[in-house]
Amino acid sequence: MRSILSVTTAATVTALTTLERLKQELDITVSTYDSLLRAKIKEATSDINARAWADPRETLTQTFWNVQGEEYLILRRRPVVSITSVTLDDVALETTEYRLDDETGVLYCLDTSGYPISWEACKSIIVVYVAGYIMPGQTSANLEPALEGAAIELLQSYWQSRGRDPLIKSESVPDLGEVSYWVGAVGEAGSLPPGVETKIAPFRRVML
Hints:
Layout: E1 2-9, H1 19-26, H2 34-49, E2 58-65, E3 68-70, E4 73-74, E5 80-88, E6 91-92, E7 98-101, E8 106-110, E9 116-117, E10 119-120, E11 125-131, H3 145-161, E12 170-173, E13 177-180, H4 194-200
Antiparallel strand pairs: 1-2, 2-11, 3-10, 4-8, 5-6, 5-11, 7-8, 8-9, 12-13
Helix pairs in contact: 2-3, 3-4
């Protein structure tokens, strides 16, 4: 089953943490590094978003094609906050004609008795919905603390490794001992520090 996702109303804030929070965590009181830190916040947000459901709250339109006998539809953004409309072959469905499992993003079609039935469409099914988190720094922010914590931990690793050769796996200093560094490339298995992986594990992107 194929679907196309588009953003109807984009988020104005997408970062998983704020500059103020990061500077506090890094014990930075000057503005010298603000530009660099903002860039790194964007980088960390992108890295975590690639692995976990950590998207900002937006209004989305998802269009499904070739829907024949499907037990359910899967919405591609989570957490789902609300469904604005469901249109099947240009006909708007009543709210009693579908049911959402907001934890999994699964959308069921219901018969007049409220029992699940298969989705069938000659043309398309268009679902408009709101999904995602209100990010830190905004009124009523509700981003999961573990996700912001993961961003902070990743940013701390960026900061601590600045200026260091990324190809160095370990180094030994006589009389002082040996130090090993985490290494990895974005997109590879284990590409994020272990502590970050642990924090985002409950929110990892999976599709049913």
